[in-house]
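User: Can you predict the 3D structure for this chain?
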Amino acid sequence: MSGHSKWSSIKHKKGAADAKRGRIFTRLIKEITVAARMGGGDPDGNPRLRSAVLAAKAENMPKDNIERAIKKGTGELEGVSYDEIMYEGYGPGGVAILVECLTDNKNRTVADIKYIFDRHGGSLGGPGCVAWIFETRGIIIFEGAEIDEEKLMEIALEAGAEDVNGKDGEFEVLTSLMDFETVKKAFDDKQMTYKQAELTKIPKNTVKLEGKRAEQMLNLVEAFEDNDDVNHVYANFDIPDEVMEALG
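Assistant: Here is the predicted structure, written as structure tokens:
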């Protein structure tokens, strides 16, 4: 960064952070709109919408933005109609990848997804080629510093959670698809605040990556996450800590 002022560096970092925040807001608004369209505008009676609103609040999205997105989904306000599409493919080293998209233009999105796969050493596959590798599970995440671990474990296991893991200053509670709402309600009833609660895709096995393939895979995931139509990316790779440190 020789020749650049400290202020230029700060502006660059702030610009990158603002761009990332904008992408997060775009995805959350799409998810809220689709959830409201599919299950109604009342979060209490629509688990998917409730999770989306919770995620939006965790990102400090203004209340007005959330309410507008819900009204667009229910048809109270005019808005774009989004389709939910899942693309499947392979990454470097044969990694299985699911790319969940919310789009208003399927032709644009499939072209973008194929381009990203091709550019980063992967390939777009057909429906069903890798979906069988993943299972739908519930995940509820708590900030470690704000939670009583013993109480968390007790409530989670009594409610039917499958596992509780502590890592990176957080606690992750895993549930089956069927028990997700029951476990989440148990925490709600005890007024235990979580930072995230959603359904996710967990791989049945993982592919270990090192060297060039690890770097390619990280670049592939980053490229997907930078695309506005991509809502979630699921992949069954594992990169050892020492490799991640070497990649910086």
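The first strand starts at residue 83 and ends at 90. The two ends are 17 Å apart (CA to CA).
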